[in-house]
Amino acid sequence: MTYTTLRYEKTDRIALVTFSTPTNLNGITEARLDELEAVLDDCAADEDIGALILTGEGKAFCVGLDLDLLDKAFGDLDYFDVVVARVNGIITRLENLDIPTIAANNGFTRAGGFEISLGCDFMIVADEAKIGDVHTDAGVVPAAVTLRLRRRVGDQRAKEILWTAKWYKGQEAVDAGLALKSVPLANLVDEAKALARSMADKPRPTIAALKRIMRDGLNLSVADGAALELKTFAHYNRTQPYGREGYTAFREKRVPSWKAKA
Are 54 and 103 in contact (CB under 8 A)? Predict the structure, then answer.
């Protein structure tokens, strides 16, 4: 596929997406949705990819829906519903992808860009970046963030972020529980790649199983959560070779086969 709104690179088991329309602050267009869906198709199919990073070019990571798209959407609410459903579908696919996903927030991140960031397993933010939802400042109810945000940062903090439309800069985003760490902008992508490398050498089915347990067990009781983990453990050992190979490699004092191929 030819990409016009983003750059897509794959190196050393790490896929890197850079939103590349800085003139509209990397706003979301239909073309951007098409291209993100194509990227996710490729990441799902390519077993050689071990992690995915999303970042932006220029002053913004992504500021949500592009103004031309919003003009059309507010004039046709059925179309608006379709667009936000596509955004939500992309976020859900990020959450369910078998590999670790990292948002490397280089600059302004709001609305749909904020929602996409929350679909990633990790956020690393530039010290200079400003992160916020800001829907309520425009009298808009968000379509894909409220409960995701509550699960990430807790009830009171989620209400503060959503109801005040406050911007969080760098370390403030970390302190609020939104991001894992804040680093100088010049180091942002390198920091994201370092985190990605620390996970990309793990078997994809291993990471996928852990993500499913964390996702599906989120609202279960302690007993039901333990049962889910035991069931996943048993199924994984019976369908995947990695646990036995990892143990055998340890006994034989050698590198596991999947790391030897990396």
Answer: yes
For 159-212, what is each residue's pLDDT tens digit? 999 999 999 999 999 999 999 999 999 999 999 999 999 999 999 999 999 999
φ, ψ of residue 17 to 5 degrees: the values are -105, 125
Cβ-contact 108, 129 below 8 angstroms: yes
Question: Phi and psi for 186 in degrees, rounded to 5?
Answer: -60, -25
Beta strand 130-131 with 168-169 is antiparallel
Among 122, 96, 115, 113, smallest CA distance to 44 is for 96
Q: How confident is the model at residue 219 (pLDDT cuts 50, 70, 90)?
A: confident
Cα separation, 198 vs 70, whole angstroms: 39
Q: What is the pLDDT of residues 78-107, one digit of tens each?
A: 999 999 999 999 999 999 999 999 999 999
> Tokens representing 137?
């400042």
**Which pLDDT tens digit goes with each residue over 238-256?**
999 988 888 898 898 988 8
Q: Work out the end-to-end distance of the chain between its first and last CA atoms, rounded to an integer number of angstroms.
A: 26
**How far apart, in Å, are the Cα atoms of 48 and each of 45, 52, 194, 205?**
9, 11, 17, 12
User: 5 exposed, middle or buried (CB, 10 Å; 0-12, 13-18, 19+)?
Assistant: buried
Distance CA 249, CA 239 (A): 19
